[in-house]
Design goal:
4 strands, elongated, alpha+beta, 22% strand
Length: 143
């Protein structure tokens, strides 16, 4: 790896984290928006979505893999969290017993995930800003 590659690897790592967290925030916002949707085009209630991350790896000279970032590889439906049945006979989607199948979205959990994602985003942004300040300082000292 050249010196220039090493120099900018921090920027690439932070940039990959920013991009991945941007996807995650979008999915969380979609989940919050779908928290009360009881009927989708598929027929059932809205199903919560989750982002699957994967490390970005680079092969080193010795053959070992080194993590150099992260990426969002896909968005999956959350099939582990069950739907909640709520008794509301007045709801237009209620069954014969008056129960409505609600989405498997917990807005409080989504907000907690959003805070974690935003903090991750801010940490990656801060790392990039610090790198730029150090690079500017190094250029000033080299004059």
């Amino acid at each position: 790896m050249s010196r220039l590659d090493r120099l900018f690897s921090t920027m690439r790592t932070s940039a990959s984290g920013l991009a991945a967290e941007r996807v995650r925030v979008g999915v969380i916002a979609e989940n919050i928006a779908g928290a009360r949707i009881t009927k989708t085009p598929d027929g059932g209630p809205y199903r919560r979505k989750v982002v699957v991350f994967e490390p970005l790896l680079r092969k080193q000279l010795d053959g070992a893999a080194q993590a150099v970032g992260v990426r969002a590889v896909r968005i999956e439906n959350d099939t582990t969290t069950p739907f909640e049945d709520v008794h509301d006979p007045s709801h237009p989607d209620a069954d014969a017993d008056g129960n409505v199948r609600m989405p498997n979205v917990n807005p409080l959990k989504e907000m907690t995930d959003m805070i974690g994602s935003m903090r991750s985003y801010e940490a990656n942004l801060s790392a990039q800003e610090n790198f730029l300040r150090m690079a500017q300082r190094a250029l000033e000292l080299a004059r």
